[in-house]
Amino acid sequence: MTTRHTVAPKGQGGRGAYHTIGEAIRAASPGDLVVIAPGTWTENLVLDRAVVLTAEHGRGSVVIAAPPGEAPVVTVDGPDCALHNITVWGPDAGLPAVSVSPGAGLVLEECSVEGGRVQVKGPEDEEGGTTAVVLRRCRLEGARLAGLHLAGGVRARLEDTAVTGVDGTGVVLSGSASLDAVRLRLERTTGSGMRLRGRARLRLTDSVLAGSGRAGLLLEDSTEATAGESRIETPGAAGVHLTGSARAELTDCRIRGAAASGLVVQETARLSASGCSVADAGANGLLVTGSAEAQLADCRIDRSTFSAVHLAGTAVGRLADCRVRGGAEHGVHATGEARIELTDCGITDVAMTGVSVLEQAVATLTGCRVAGTAAGIGIGSPAGSTVADTTVTGTREIGVQVAKGAAVSLAGVRISGAGAAGLVVDEGAEATVTGGRVEDCAGSGAVVWTGARPEVTGLHIDRPGKNGVFLAEGAGGTFTSLDVTSAGFPALHVAKGADPVFRHCRIRDCAEALGTDEGAEPVLEDCTADGAPLTFGTVAASPANGGPGAAPSAASTAKAANGSGDSDEPEEENLEDLLGELHELVGLDRVKQDVGSLVKLMQTVRRREEAGLPAPPLSRHLVFAGNPGTGKTTVARLYGRLLKALGLLRRGHLVEVDRTALVGEYVGHTGPKTTAAFNRALGGVLFIDEAYSLAPAFAGNDFGTEAVATLVKLMEDHRDDVVVIAAGYPGDMHRFIGSNPGLASRFGRTLLFEDYEPAELVSIVEFQAGRHRYELTPTARTELVSLFETMPRGEGFGNGRSARQIFQEMTERQAQRVAELTAPTAEQLISLEAHDLPHPAAR
């Protein structure tokens, strides 16, 4: 029979009431009930028998607080003890407020524990039995080191309980402890949300782990956890982190805003996840290293800061019916000797490659979709990857690239809408292509580089922007039952020394069927072009001979390398005349002064050399920083002529290029393309407009970095025979110079081209008018000044270009006006009047 014991302050509670809780406990028998009156009770309690303590007036009315330094407040040494509706205040946040001894049992219901942890210890071995603890609708707050610590042979259950504000880990399980947590809310911990060590076990259901300072859920050693319908939000490190030989199974969980990776699996750990999502991770969505394994089904990984899925070491990843969307790097990135298996997965809108496989890693893709990425699939491993029944659409660069020395088998792969080539097989790569389709690519359908010899069967290439198949020097391979339709360049281009075999191939509706360079050796067996037999006998028209799609001839290349072109050498010019031409330019006072100083310096250098004295160190390369239309190209052209007049350049001509003239579409193109442009400028000036575009803010694997590296080497190799001027917006040129250590030492001087003032813009218009035999009336000039003063100087403003455009518009409006006159006078024919100016609203 249960006996009720009442605890009340002196003078209250009636006859038989106890005045301390400890007295009532000592008087109670196992199974008795201790009812406590409202108030704060300063005691240390020891529950050594099965008693129930409850607050008479409900939750929050009873506080038990131990004297300072005397912790724990409540010690449980007996079985089947319980506290209902009671608040426990610990005297030291770093010590236990409630301590449960091995073999004891405790139920906390509607209780709060503040300023100290709940510590539960179980027997060290299984023969010692277990310690049982249940927390229902409780709140643990303000502890240090841990909010709840379960150690040894503990069996615990949490229901509708909150753990918050812990300076350390929210819940720690160690030894052989096990916890079943339902609707747990764990938030604001400086350490991990939950940490499992030893052989601990966790089952987490319908719970939230939010705002942890480190990992949301950390599993170490040989621990195991299952989590279902739970959320891990904004952890300070990984969302779920497995190390050692830990095991975890996640179902319908959401991991959002991790400061590091969303899911981390290391060493020999194993992770299984189904129906889960990882979003906005500060690093990878899924990171698997060591010899760990991860298996994901029907999961989503969105907006990762690093690659969405990254595997390294000998890790294994298996993803089925998963989606990767958004992200600053790769969709899936496998390195080391990792193995990644993707089945029916979708990867969209990542900034770099959809699937990247490097070193000795192996990838197996089946039924996957890659769309809206920079490059689609990049295979850089020789270990042998397989891609089957997969589509790659809308890539900004190459659809599928097999890098130097890599190996892959492609079967039934569809590549559509690539911004460059559809398929690239790099130098020495091994590729087997069976079936599939490449369509609507901006570059060539398939590119085969030197030394590569792919086996291609049944591939359809439709509407490529360039060649259907481009084979570089020394390339080869066998192409069987290849179909090429509607190619913009020759359907098949074969370079010098290339010896591909084409069997049963069909060419239809192409600009040209076959383009070859001198020395090409293609073999054509039973091939047709628009139904007619296609044979190879003489060299067909090729880009070297004026056709589209191949490299320039050896003669033209040598000509470019020697700095010669179609025009004659420039005439000798007088230095003073050139300086006079410079000073006649409108505005640019600061630039004129800088160029004049450079000329004087170089005159001195030239005289020292003529006197047999060593020349001082001098970089002639310049940065022109300024907005569009400020005369950068004009001054660059004059600068080359000035150096020619000084005898410091052979020709002094200007070669103007931009990113498109230097950067190739696929691996191996950029170096030769940059070199060709540089060779054209030998003896003169290479002017790189918008040079900052070679070093984009988020470069990733951008080919612009290769162009910069090539330029740096060429500038060193030909430092006395060329001047390079890099031009662009002032705010972006600093990034360009900082993109490669060699640039800062070679570009030692920056010339700032300031925007033109209104009066200077009027002078440009008047100069144009004088050249074309026009005159501005005084009223027109006054109105023109006003127009330039009020003209918005936003992104579309072009400085001198805008002035020249206005002059052109004035002449067009004047022509319309004069055409209506019956017999215009000579003065009317040359006069530009105020109403010939464009209306400001029209600009």
TrEMBL record:
Record-given protein name: Right-handed parallel beta-helix repeat-containing protein
Instruction: Write out the similarity annotation.
Output: Belongs to the CbxX/CfxQ family.
Top-level taxon in the UniProt lineage? Bacteria
- Which organism is the protein's source? Streptomyces sp. R39
Q: Which residues form the AAA+ ATPase domain?
A: 618-757
Alphabetic keyword roster: ATP-binding, Nucleotide-binding
Report the GO molecular function annotations: ATP binding; ATP hydrolysis activity
For this protein, the record's Gene3D superfamilies field holds: 1.10.8.60, P-loop containing nucleotide triphosphate hydrolases (3.40.50.300), Single-stranded right-handed beta-helix, Pectin lyase-like (2.160.20.10)
Biased composition, class Low complexity, residue ranges: 540-565
Q: Where is this region: Disordered?
A: 539-572
Family annotation (SMART domains): AAA, PbH1
Q: A Pfam family matched by this chain, by name?
A: Beta_helix
InterPro entries in alphabetical order: AAA+_ATPase, AAA_lid_6, ATPase_AAA_core, Beta_helix, CbxX/CfxQ, CbxX/CfxQ_RuBisCO_ESX, P-loop_NTPase, PbH1
